[in-house]
Amino acid sequence: MGSYAKKVICEELGAPQNSVVNCTPLEDFGGKHPDPNLTYAADLVTEMAKGHYDFGAAFDGDGDRNMILGKSAFFVTPSDSLAVLAHYLECIPYFKETGVKGYARSMPTSGAVDRVAKAKNQTCFEVPTGWKFFGNLMDAGRLSLCGEESFGTGSDHIREKDGLWAVLAWLSVLANQNCSVEECIKKHWQTYGRNFYTRFGKFFIV
């Protein structure tokens, strides 16, 4: 993922080279755990908590998972991230052309995106854990956006999770709304209410 992040974020979007870190591909991930969450991306959380940066994101090794942080390390849960993108999907040029066909989430993911679907009169599918179930809906032309609570987000532009796409989608939303990550999330909660979920080992409460 590091090579793609450098190319897109620095070369294409013009961000400084020091905007991306840990981007050299290594067999052992530099001794770090590759999953993007508050525990394994603690260095990013610590840096964002200083309040110097407005937006932060972490990816896993192959870039299919993503974590979004706002200023002062404001954490966006994967379920809220999916719901916010669903609400603002039409502001992204790709969906202006293709239209929105529907949303989907895995069973353990909170029902936040369901609320958006109901408000927008869109179909929202709940599927078992496993990305192949999203792929089936994409093949059937029933799905534009999907995600899971394990930090995976995707759309029908590719039949797989795409963490970098999710981050670019978030940047599009923030530019369109001219707001911060925290403002965007809190506005979403005010509109739709807030969903809570907790993972206990292999069990979920949604």
Automatic annotation (TrEMBL):
Ranges of residues in domain Alpha-D-phosphohexomutase alpha/beta/alpha: 6-69, 81-192
UniProt entry keywords in alphabetical sequence: Isomerase, Magnesium, Metal-binding, Phosphoprotein
Cited Pfam families: PGM_PMM_II, PGM_PMM_III
InterPro entries: A-D-PHexomutase_a/b/a-I/II/III (IPR016055), A-D-PHexomutase_a/b/a-II (IPR005845), A-D-PHexomutase_a/b/a-III (IPR005846), Alpha-D-phosphohexomutase_SF (IPR005841), PGM (IPR045244)
Gene Ontology molecular function: any one: phosphoglucomutase activity
Any one GO CC term of the record: cytosol
Ranges in a coiled coil: none
Keyword Metal-binding in annotation: yes
Domain of life: Eukaryota
Gene3D superfamilies: Alpha-D-Glucose-1,6-Bisphosphate, subunit A, domain 3, Alpha-D-phosphohexomutase, C-terminal domain
Keyword Isomerase: yes
Needed cofactors: Mg(2+)
GO biological process: carbohydrate metabolic process
PANTHER family: PHOSPHOGLUCOMUTASE, PHOSPHOHEXOMUTASE FAMILY MEMBER
UniProt family annotation: Belongs to the phosphohexose mutase family.
The protein, known as: Phosphoglucomutase-1
